[in-house]
Specification:
heterodimer; A: 176 residues; mainly alpha; 2 domains; B: alpha+beta; 5 domains; eight-stranded antiparallel sheet; 23% helix; 36% strand; globular
Chain lengths: 176, 448
């Protein structure tokens, strides 16, 4: 089924078809939400909520228009709501940054950053990719990584900083 | 942005992610996010979050949305049932005395309590139990002994004894294959699913866990917390051994609370008198010193199709998308993940013949005896490769186009009965065609 057929079936209540739409659009939506939220689980929660919002509102979706931008508008609204809802629970210093984030403009090609980042990661060697995965996906603290690698925490932090710099430039290059 | 301003911003971003941002750092970031380079600063701020997403499986979102919609459906059904059970609107309007209000309150309390009980029970429920076809699973539940076969339901606090190689599947898709004779207690998943491995072996593929939860496996000596990975464990004789194939696992020694992170292709052992450190798994790179004995068959058995029907009955699609098109079994992952098809029937003796076609990667694996040994089949430029496997008790031989392949230790124990698996490296597509097998008439139990 192509996207239009999936949309028509999902509007008629077909959850399998909706799962197909989730598969098609989840990477771009995650990339967009991750521009504002850094915690992996926060991003997944907001993305999940966005899709559920979309499912509930499907009968109001204008099928002559594109699904992706409509979904990402829902995602942006959900992200802003998440940021605002957590403001009272944040330390003042972090809350000030979150408020600035809410007002800050999104980067161009924001939707494709995750795809670009995955391509950039493929260019790194396996050891560095693994280190990034351990730190950012598995959430292993720098101190524990340092212990496992036999390096000082400062050395590991520096490696991570350099790798992030390389990736940032690579993604920025892809976007431009 | 000047170099020093850039460095200040970088430091502030790092502190923001660590949650240690101070007032000065906050000021730096707020000004940067309001300045001319706001987009670039936002991009740098987002990199940590994007990195976490880049390593998160795409299927995780699809699964979580499916679960959420299913939960909403169930909740909606409960609400409808409650509404049906309540008196009609007309009756409610006339019965407004204090006792009727008390009755409604009591009914609501009952409904809330019932929902809580249902939820707790539902969470405790292990989604599906898949038992090896040649024998049942013995379950101790509420002081009684039950036997379950394929598809039977399991609940928290069940005690299990595996009479054959047995696979349990959790609601989140996590799968654990237990060796014959393993003893297991299922735990109540207040802080995530898991089990207690009293004795035996466990080969696990754990799905990424929900926020704040981890899949916990306890043995008498150790505790293992998993976020999502592939590994194998052996517990028994006051010794617990953990080998991790993929991802990271935190292992804690119960005796003194010392914990280590065991990464991919590493192992750790908890046992008295043994050093509790992380070491690389030693992989045998040569053919093990076993030979196929020349034993005349008692009777020539018939060849049977390995995939008897198109429904993959007896197989678990552990990774990737698998299809059967006119007998051509095809496994692929559109998101460039690995693909693995795991059998459920434990073979002790086996002859298998099939053709494999591997594309996108340079090799695939045929895994024998519950990933005890495996052979790497070369891709040969995407051409079909004829693969033959001969397994006789302790002895194993695998050939590709008539050439014997080196065997590698999966978990390195002596050859034993166990299921077959086909596995392609991440990004690869694996096709299996004309797969046939035959089992000697006297299919003996493994000798060790």
């Amino acid at each position: 089924m192509d996207e239009h057929e999936l949309i028509r079936a999902a509007v008629a209540g077909d959850e399998e078809a909706f799962a197909g739409l989730v598969r098609l659009h989840q990477a771009r939506l995650r990339g967009l939400v991750a521009l504002s939220l850094s915690e992996r689980d926060d991003v997944l929660e907001v993305v999940q909520e966005s899709f559920v919002d979309a499912w509930r509102s499907l009968d109001r979706f204008d099928q002559t228009r594109e699904f992706g931008p409509w979904l990402r508008t829902i995602g942006r609204n959900r992200t802003l709501k998440f940021l605002r809802d957590r403001l009272p629970r944040r330390r003042r210093e972090l809350a000030l940054v979150d408020e600035a984030l809410i007002a800050a403009p999104l980067s161009e090609l924001a939707d494709d950053r995750l795809v670009a980042l995955r391509r950039c990661l493929e260019r790194l060697d396996a050891e560095h990719r693994r280190l990034l995965e351990q730190r950012f996906a598995d959430g292993i603290p720098v101190q524990e990584l340092a212990l496992a690698l036999g390096k000082s925490p400062n050395a590991v932090s520096m490696i991570l900083l350099r790798l992030k710099d390389v990736l940032h430039r690579c993604v920025a290059g892809a976007a431009s | 942005m000047s170099r020093s301003a850039n460095e200040q911003t970088n430091l502030a971003i790092a502190a923001y992610h660590e949650g240690t941002l101070d007032a000065a750092g906050s000021q730096v970031l707020v000004e940067a996010l309001r300045g001319a380079d706001a987009r670039a600063v936002r991009d740098r701020l987002a990199l940590d979050g994007l990195l976490a997403q880049a390593f998160t499986a795409d299927d995780a979102v699809v699964r979580s949305v499916r679960e959420r919609l299913a939960a909403e459906r169930s909740a909606s059904a409960v609400v409808k049932a409650v509404r049906r059970s309540l008196p009609s609107r007309r009756h409610r309007q006339v019965s407004t005395t204090w006792w009727s209000r008390a009755a409604v309150a009591a009914l609501l309390a009952l409904v809330v309590g019932g929902c809580w009980w249902f939820t707790a029970r539902h969470q405790a429920h292990v989604y599906e139990c898949r038992v090896g076809s040649s024998g049942p699973l013995v379950v101790a539940r509420d002081g009684r002994a039950l036997t379950l076969t394929k598809g039977g339901d399991l609940f928290a606090e069940d005690g299990l004894t595996m009479t054959v190689t047995t696979t349990l599947v959790w609601a989140d898709g996590s799968q654990v294959v237990f060796g014959s004779g393993s003893q297991v207690e299922l735990k109540r998943p207040a802080l995530g699913p898991g089990f207690r491995l009293v004795n035996g072996t466990a080969s696990a593929e754990i799905a990424p866990q929900r926020p704040g939860l981890s899949f916990v496996i306890a043995t008498p000596e150790a505790r293992v917390e998993v976020l999502g990975t592939r590994f194998q464990m052996h517990a028994g004789e006051q010794r617990t051994r953990l080998e991790v194939q993929h991802g990271n696992v935190r292992m804690t020694r119960i005796a003194d609370g010392k914990a280590v992170i065991v990464g991919a292709e590493q192992r750790a052992i908890v046992a008295e008198g043994e050093d509790f450190t992380v070491r690389p798994i030693v992989v045998a790179t040569t053919t093990p010193p076993v030979t196929v004995p020349v034993v005349p068959p008692l009777e020539e058995p018939a060849w049977k199709p390995l995939f008897a029907d198109s429904g993959f009955d007896g197989w678990i699609m552990q990774h990737g998308r698998w299809s059967n098109l006119h007998g051509r079994i095809r496994g692929e992952d559109p998101h460039h993940g690995k693909v693995r098809l795991l059998g459920q029937h434990p073979f002790a003796d086996l002859e298998l013949s099939c053709r494999l076609r591997i594309t996108g990667v340079d090799r695939a694996e045929v895994q024998v005896g519950d990933y005890n040994w495996f052979a790497e089949v070369p891709a040969k430029g995407g051409e079909w490769v004829q693969v033959e496997i001969t397994q006789r008790g302790d002895a194993l031989r695998v050939t590709a186009d008539g050439v014997a392949l080196p065997l590698h230790a999966g978990d390195g124990r002596p050859m034993r009965a166990g299921p077959l698996a086909f596995y392609a490296m991440p990004g690869g597509t694996l096709e299996i065609f004309d797969a046939r097998f035959r089992v000697p008439v006297s299919n003996p139990a493994p000798t060790r």
